[in-house]
Amino acid sequence: MYLLRTKESKDMKLDLLVTEFLEYLEVEKGCSLLTARAYKHYLQRFCNWFRENCSGTRPEEIDLESVRRYRLYLAHFRSPDGAQLKRNSQSYYIIALRSFLRYLVVKRDIDTMSPDKIELPKQGSRSVSFLDAGQMERLLNSPKISNITGLRDRVILETLFSTGLRVSELVSLNRDQIDLKRKEFGIRGKGNKIRVVFLSDTAAQWIERYLQARKDYFKPLFIRYSGAVDSWNSGERMRLTARSVQKIVTKYATRCGLSIKVSPHTMRHSFATDLLINGADIRSVQEMLGHESIKTTQVYTHVTNRHLKEVHQAFHHKG
User: Fold this and answer.
1) Which helix (H) or strand (E) holds 117?
2) Are 85 and 77 in contact (CB under 8 A)?
3) Which of 77, 189, 200, 260 is the most buried (most CB within 10 A)?
4) pLDDT tens-digit profile of 33-68?
5) Cβ pair 290, 195 in contact under 8 A
6) Would you say 209 and 151 are in contact if contact means Cβ atoms under 8 Å apart?
7) What does residue 265 show for φ and ψ, rounded to 5 degrees?
8) Any idea what the Cα angle at residue 13 is, between residues 7 and 19, rounded to 5°?
9) Where are the alpha helices (DSSP H) in the chain?
10) pLDDT digits (tens, 9 = 90+) for 9-27
11) With 70 as the cut, is the pLDDT of residue 155 above it?
């Protein structure tokens, strides 16, 4: 455990400190493995660049000039196929570096550059893709429910739109979590934050129909129906993966001829947008989405503001 290590900071190299920081994210901050993996990728790139271009291996060697050069490197970076890092992607690298430096200064009392000296790149407004009512209806009706696989897929689509769950949250669901009587269940989201998720009447009916059609006793709510049957650990190996759900959503979006790229996150955007357009307050939507900050939820106000303008233009007396 990182808390038990007692080496002096002067003997600590960046690689080891990064490892400790990642452990801190998981243990203390409750970050998911996916988040920790992303931070590992961002910070390893910095460490490699810092070692090769500044001969740096220790935190006290990081200064404003080396960070400036690193940002220039990110701006000029090209992948083997010639693609450059998008501005948002460059921000992720800098955010990771700032978080790491803050950990070193605040949690480890290590003499290094202050993270407050690093300014984040200015970003434009995030664009949000979502489905309107007609598009959503087409998508929900696209699976053929004559077999268990199609029925499962319909339930996945209904649940995503009804709850606004992240795909990682969806695939983590177990059968015994769902209270169909109350039409709700608890979920552990980002940062180990627990929230209550509500089901629409329609989604609850589809889940009940799917469970009644199941002939197995596997624990996961959504399971695969291809490959070898493996009942190890209550059928844990039968659980659908996030990647599988992404493929399922994309398949049906293509099948029903939707013109935009649709992912599970598009369903989440559609859930939030539908709530706001129909009068929900943004604080409630923040809670339902499991956003830690209201700023994350406010991206949807741009969408709803456009909708209000369209309503005004369509219905206001022009005189």
Assistant:
1) none
2) yes
3) 189
4) 778 899 999 999 999 999 999 988 999 999 999 999
5) yes
6) yes
7) -70, -30
8) 85
9) 14-27, 33-54, 64-76, 87-102, 133-140, 148-163, 167-171, 201-213, 232-235, 242-255, 264-277, 282-289, 294-297, 299-315
10) 445 789 999 999 999 988 8
11) yes
> Residues 177-231: pLDDT tens digits?
999 999 999 998 877 788 999 999 999 999 999 999 999 999 999 999 998 888 7
Alpha carbon distance 167, 242 (integer Å): 6
Query: How long, in residues, is the chain?
Result: 319
The answer to whether 117 touches 151, Cβ cutoff 8 Å, is: no
pTM of the model: 0.67
* Chain centroid, CA 109 distance in Å: 31
Mean pLDDT score across all residues of the chain: 87
Q: What is the pLDDT of residues 102-133, one digit of tens each?
A: 999 999 999 999 999 998 766 555 567 888 88
Which of 82, 85, 104, 81 lies closest to 93, judged by CA? 85
Query: Encoding tokens for residue 233?
Result: 């650990």
| Site of tokens 């769950």 | 165
Q: Rounded to an integer, what distance in angstroms lies between the CA atom of residue 154 and that of residue 250?
A: 13
**3-state SS assignment for residue 187:** strand
Amino acid at 257: G
Instruction: Please report the domains of the chain, with CATH numbers, ordered by start residue.
Output: 2-117 (1.10.150), 133-315 (1.10.443.10)
Catalytic positions are: 166, 190, 265, 268, 291, 300
CA 240-241-247 angle, to 5 degrees, is: 95
**How far is Cα 252 from Cα 75, in angstroms, rounded to an integer?**
37
- Cβ–Cβ < 8 Å for 275, 291: no
User: Which pLDDT band holds residue 8 (cuts at 50, 70, 90)?
Assistant: very low
Query: Hey, what are 112's tokens?
Result: 């290094």
What is the spatial distance between Cα 239 and Cα 234, in angstroms, rounded to a whole number?
A: 10
Contact predicate 92/100, CB 8 Å: no
